[in-house]
Amino acid sequence: MTTERRGGGRRWRGLSLRLRLTVLTAAAAAAALVAGAFALTAVLSRSRLAALDGLLRDRVGVVTGLVESDTVPATLPTVEAGEVAQLLDEQGGVLASSPNASRTLPVLPAGPLAALRSSAGTGVLVLSTADDAYSRPGRVALHAVTYRGSPATVVVSLPLGEVQGLLGALRVALLIVVPLLTVLVALALWLAVGRALHPVEQLRRGAAQVAAAGGGGGLPVPAADDELAALARTLNEMLERLDRAASRQRTFVADAAHELRSPLAALRATVDVARSHPGTWTVAELAAELEPEALRMQSLVDDLLLLARVGARPAHPAPVDLRAVADGLAATAARVPVEVIGSGHAVADAERVTRVLRNLVDNATRHASNRVRVVIDQRADTCRVVVEDDGRGVPVADRERVFERFVRLDEAREREAGGAGLGLAIARELAREQGGDVTLAGSQLGGLAAVVLLPSAPSEGPDRAGA
Asked: Could you tell me how far CA 356 lies from the centroid of its own chain?
């Protein structure tokens, strides 16, 4: 049984969304129509019976008035078709009757009549009879009266044939109308769902074409400015970003392979020469020849690994003394002197902030002529660090491009200095990871100014320092 249910569930899920929606909605509509049909039949039945009971009470009242005024005619008057009116004595004998009823056959037998008369008391009792004395189902009303000093009973009967015929015709009509309406609802829903899902099918075909092409292109946007159009625009933006990301990745891989090829080629050439001419170099000379390229390759691999890990490792933000970091970098700078001005504290990961400033200071000392300056300015919510040099600077048009990976404006000089075009890219990525940024501007020293913005930490005043 469980296997059969699972198989049925899989078959149901295998149907198209359009068919499933149509079947479910048509089934719900059919259930609603059936429930409505039963409710209509019940309400109509009650209303017709209530109307019939009202007529019975009116007719009983008319006959009772004749009895009370002692003006009972030999033939009791009737108004409705099929109406039977009788005045019965205590033993159930007929005292007066309507023209369409027998003067000897009472509507109700004497035994049931006595029981009903006692339960009715002084009021009018209305009840249904499945079969009266005239072999017809109907509604009967009776009222206990006194006629010429003796107990009597007024009995009025109306047949239910008209009501039953009306309800039967209604049931037959509903048996035809409900299935027909269900089919019409299913057909209308099938067309409506098909029209509503047509843009979805267009999106699917567009996505299939993009997948077959291996990327690029976009999805068709529906003409109507609705949720599907918004979805198509969002998916197109996502595809565009993915395409750009894939393009950047391909470029990155190609550039990384190109950068690694040079030191590997140099290492291979040195090894081949050493193998071909064993006595040409000593071990120390061979190690000295291989070491720069090995270190360059190690630095490049380390930078690539760092870029790959940006955002993947959890940061540990804490107050960082930027003056202490800058002083430590200035002390290790060898090519040109580095001047540090100002102080400040930023809320960031100390190791990553140190790497940001080291990359910027290394870049400045590499391109400076005689001077590098680090200016730290702490403000209320931002700590600003400017690393300046007196070199040739970077043209305004290239100040964003140099943040791209492996971009070098002066490739020969960059290569000699050991750069691979990753320093600024790493600095910006790490700064943004800390909630800051790195931008480039012109320097007052005549060269380039790298501006670092980081979240500021509360400065330590005299009271806190004393504490």
From this structure: 40
